[in-house]
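WP5 quarterly update. Target: Ribonuclease HII. Source organism: Rurimicrobium arvi. Length: 197 aa.
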Amino acid sequence: MYMLAPYFQTGIAEAGCDEAGRGCLAGPVFAAAVILPQDFFHPLLNDSKVLSEEERFELRPYIESNALAWSVASVDNIEIDLINILKASFKAMHLAVDQLKKRPELLLIDGNRFVPYLGIPHHCMVKGDARFASIAAASILAKTYRDDFMDQLHDEHPEYGWSQNKGYPTPAHKKAIAAFGHTSYHRLTFRSEIGQR
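Structure tokens (predicted):
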């Protein structure tokens, strides 16, 4: 069984941080921050992208019940268009860290870039969600909360198939945009990626 590292530095409160929805054409970007006890374990815990939807939703309440602290935040498509998706992803992570009930002493960030947050040291970890338990946990919370949100938006605009594609640029989603235009939830700065004819 592949084991994620339980921590990067022993004896301190580390918050794993990850985002979901960065590559989408519609909807917010979500981020989560999670502080786990250093003995946290669940046999399914892994990068959210390699888990099934059922596994992610099985893990979410376990993470929430056993974490020392966790939070989820989002930045909507309007602000994404104003500040760009990279800055919006960092802002969502900052908001999630700010909402933690326990102040972390170190942030473990999935990816290779980050804007420092209130003097808390951080380490950027490429593919960190497949390496460290706290980042994997954050990836699962960000993904499941965003999926829930997109399912709600699907009820308003079922023609875009958001319950299936979650706002990502699938062929069906692009075809629906070509047929019906943009909604108030679409990221207009992503028009070049839509490939309308």
